[in-house]
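Sample entry (277 residues):
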Amino acid sequence: MNYPLLRTFLGRPVSSTWKTPMVKCDRCGKDEYMPFRCKYCGGYFCAEHRLPEMHDCPGTYQFSRSTTGATGFSPTGYSYAPQPQGGRFWFSQRELRDLAVGLALIFGVLFTTSWRTLIAYPPVLVGGLIIFALAFLLHELAHKFMAQRLGYWAEFRLNQQGVMITLISFISPFKVIAPGAVMISGNMSFDDYGRVSIAGPATNIAMGLVYLTFSLLAGGLISTFLAYLGMSINAMLALFNLIPLGIFDGAKIFRWNKAVWGAAVIAAGLLFMFSNF
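Predicted structure, serialized as tokens:
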């Protein structure tokens, strides 16, 4: 193989062995056999730093992403706008509508799963709906408010695929509740990326601790049950999102700060064990 010719073609330094040449990641210097090339800045990167926001891309681009990790550039059907002046935290009419539909879907999954128990015990029905609603809402709003606090445009949007998966959960024994996610627009730095990602699971862990305190103070059977239910739901939601793979918040947090990811996993795991064993 003509290595000098390959170096000329790539236009950048290449380290090689006798067998296969490798290209160094512009962000971390890691050798890669098949690097990713950024179409905005022209740099070459490893899988971990291939996205523009993961290598502080100096190029010009319009970027949007969901906190579940789905990425896309100027997706069709979304109307992105700068954050309004005079208020850091705000909601659009479309966002309020999408949040309402998302809540309705969550209530539907809950009702189809435990309708006999919920009808027999109305206080459990009301308490369960509130617990599920808060776990979902505050998780997503934590992502949104953190992004807005850092100066980015952020709104909750329903996701067609997520809505379909949630609807299937009405009849499926395996429940997945993911009607949508917070969409964020802006050239996000690596640190901001981590802060926005940890905001959701951290909020669920904080809510779990509130329910833990309430469980120690509650006197009635139903109150204690709801406290343990709230603790369990928030712990499970936090642990699910902390999975360090693929599109989950945990994958972004793990790359950003492994100590923060580990502390969150331990806290959520302890809450889950306390509420279920």
